Model the fold of this input.
Amino acid sequence: MNISLLGILISLSSAIYVLETFIPFPLPVGRWGFSNSLVLFSATLSMKSALVVSAGKSILGSLLSGRIMSPPFWMGFLGSIGAAIVERLLYETRFGYIGMSLAGSAVNNVIQMAVGALIIKSYGIFSLLPLFLAIGSVSAVANVYMAKAYEKFWEVKKICE
Amino acid sequence: MKILSPRDIIIAIVITAIAIVPLVIRHDHSLNTVVVRVDGKVVMRIKKPGSYNVYRNGKRITTVVFNGKEVRVVNSTCRLKICEKMGWVKPGEEIVCVPNHLVVRFEKSRIDAVTW
Done:
């Protein structure tokens, strides 16, 4: 595990986490989740780096946007850790980027809603799941192309070294 | 690392199915009562149009407005006001306010269920 690479990945994804709130989102609640493209890329490196990047970007990103320790923070934090684990497991079983990203975004949404349901003590929140899965799949595919771009950059960097 | 492997198509199909099926079958016109839940407990069943204050532990948390067809919440005490931004909501949709532990949704009236 390369600590300087992890630092770059966490800082990039927290920056995207904060900046993506300025991109209009079709629903009144939620975000696109483009910062998960870096979690997706780190899932191809190792389980440890996927976990560190997903936890790091949730903590640093919500610290910067002032929502740390609030209910939305716990929903996003546990969701992105769950997504990181699933993405790494799918990588190890030889799935491609699209499968990893789609499954990661679906797991992220399901965990977020499960945490939300625990907070409000009602499963009613799950009726929003289809909508979130649909929008999440769009950004999941966008994340694939971003992760592919990081991969190219990472290879160039390795050659330079 | 490949972008698409044949196995990925299975995941894509499963997620698309989960996302699309409930969207197609969700419109149910027998839902005619607005049910307000706080902490998972029903605190109000609304059938007549009007504005209703909702309380949690003795404090007013929000106001539910029902116009006979759609429902919305106004003047919520939460910080992000996501519940207010949901706007007017039709049967089959719902309003959730996580900070106030509040859920507003349409359900079948108990009386309609026994009269037929």
Summary: The helical segments of chain B are 8-25, 82-85, 110-115. Chain B touches chain A at residues 1-5, 7-8, 10-12, 15-16, 18-23, 26, 37, 39-40, 80, 82, 85-87, 92-94, 96-99, 101-103, 105 (CB under 8 Å). The two ends of chain B are 61 Å apart (CA to CA).
